[in-house]
Amino acid sequence: MLWREDRPMRIALLGCGTVGGGVYEFVQERTDMEIAYVLSRRPRPDLNCPVTSDFSRIVSDPTVDTAIEVMGGRQPAYEYMCAALRAGKNVVTANKQLMSERYGELVQLARENHVALRCSAAVGGGIRWLTNLESTLDMEPVLRVSGIMNGTTNYILDTMTTSGLKFEDALRQAQALGYAEVDPTEDLNGADARRKLVISTNVAFGCVVQEPEVTTFGIAGVRACDIGAARKMHRVVKLMASARLLDSGDVACYLEPAMMPQGMHEAAVPENFNLISITGMHIGKQSFYGQGAGRFPTAYNVMQDCLDIRNGLTRFYTDKLRPARVDNSSIMRPYYVRVNGMDRWLQTRIDKMLDCGIITTPVAVSEIHAWARERKLTETGGFLASLR
Question: What pTM, to 2 d.p., does this model score?
Answer without folding.
Answer: 0.95
